[in-house]
UniProtKB/TrEMBL annotation:
Pfam families: Peptidase_C14. This is CASP3 protein. SUPFAM superfamilies: Caspase-like. Residues 5-131 form the Caspase family p20 domain. GO terms for molecular function: cysteine-type endopeptidase activity.
């Protein structure tokens, strides 16, 4: 009897950044590495074969998704990206942008037939702008915002869900203990809520971040609101191992 194919997960976490322009490099994202390692262990326990990659350039990030097109996949593909970002882009270790539309294009049915019928689930911990109330000495993951995010939603391929740490135009908070968003994801995956359908699970994450998390210090009381977009046609239970 042949063994069932294992679900796959790709986690990309950029914590240190370099740039040819000494004034253009981003700051170090303290707390992100340990958080990603915890997510890797948790997903491994939930029947995922996890590839955890640290500090990858923009080109290397694209190559990692290209490689997934040549792999054998189980019922689900999950990807977590933790980096500096802007509306519609995340940044590589080399401080160069990777458009989310480019990642979605690589995994589209035309480019990646092996994933055409498999639900693809993204969790993106990155800023989508610079808007927030008053701020603390916390690290946030942004550059200047770009005005149009509609094209990013239109470009999402079939059978795909994307959950963002924050709303368009806003920062995603990160400190030495981790991020509001991915800590909430960890909490859900390590508890009984992991058995919920994906849309309900993501709504629980929204609730947890909105009502249980806030910035401290100078930005005392500043909040964060995750959001997600989906074009799935059925309920899925990707973490009910």
């Amino acid at each position: 009897m042949s063994q069932a194919r294992q679900n796959r997960a790709l986690i990309i976490v950029n914590t240190d950044f370099c740039s040819s322009d000494s004034d253009g490099a981003f700051g170090t994202r303290r707390g992100a590495k340990r958080e990603a390692e915890k997510l890797s262990k948790t997903l491994s326990r939930l029947n995922y074969k996890v590839k955890l990659m640290h500090n990858k350039t923009a080109k290397e990030i694209e190559d990692l998704y290209q490689q997934e097109c040549c792999c054998e996949h189980g019922e689900y593909f999950v990807s977590i990206i933790s980096s500096h970002g802007n509306e519609g882009v995340i940044f590589g270790y080399d401080s160069e942008p990777v458009k989310l539309t480019r990642i979605f294009q690589i995994l589209s049915s035309e480019k990646c037939p092996v994933l055409s019928k498999i639900p693809k689930i993204f969790f993106i911990q990155a800023c989508r702008g610079k808007e927030f109330d008053r701020g603390v000495v916390v690290e946030c993951d942004s550059r200047e915002p770009e005005p149009d995010c509609l094209s990013d939603y239109i470009s999402i391929p079939p059978q795909t869900v994307v959950m963002f740490a924050c709303s368009p135009g806003y920062v995603a908070f990160l400190n030495i203990f981790g991020s509001m968003f991915l800590q909430a994801l960890l909490k859900v995956l390590e508890g009984e809520e992991r058995h919920l359908a994906l849309n309900r699970l993501m709504t629980r994450i929204n609730w947890h971040v909105a009502f249980c998390c806030q910035a401290r210090g100078t930005y005392e009381g500043c909040k964060e609101m995750p959001c997600f977009v989906t074009n799935l046609l059925q309920e899925v239970f990707p973490f009910s191992a």
